[in-house]
Amino acid sequence: MTARIETTPLVQTEDSARSAAAQMYLERYRAPFSLRCGALLIDYIILVVIMAFSTVVARMLGGGARSSGDATETMGLLIALGVALLNFVLLTAWQGQTIGKWATGLRIVRRDGQGVGVGRLLLRHLLGYPLSLLTLGIGFLIAAFNANGRALHDVIAGTVVVRDTARRARPVH
After folding, report:
1. Could you tell me the pTM of the whole model?
2. Which of 10, 92, 136, 139 might form a disulfide with 152, Cβ 3.0–4.6 angstroms?
3. Are 149 and 160 in contact (CB under 8 A)?
4. Where are the domains of the chain?
């Protein structure tokens, strides 16, 4: 019979205490997979509505003026791309949320609980999302089965999605 003895340092450094507090915070307020799916669905619906509206307007104008219909569809595509850029890059860099995450009460943060920087955000959205899609969606599904609730794009960028109420409830150090 053997005993396993674990040793801990007598003095806990400030960094290790902050890291442990951040881990407890992220575990407690980790976003459920269903809310993450709802947030992505809301973001997707916004883009689809813009495209559908521009297509309907283009078809209404397209009777004898085909070029005006094409221009309307092109304008709808440009507006949808602009909204996607605003939603997935600018809003997320500024607030840590897309419109869908705001509506569902979620926020993107770094693994240590701090805000997401622009570089990490671009890595998450421009490299991580396409890789999650290229794996036939398995990169997104990882969040449902991962103990930390992190999808492939979260692992790549070192981020985690938490409930927004956690940001307000977090103790100040």
Report:
1. 0.74
2. 139
3. yes
4. 28-166
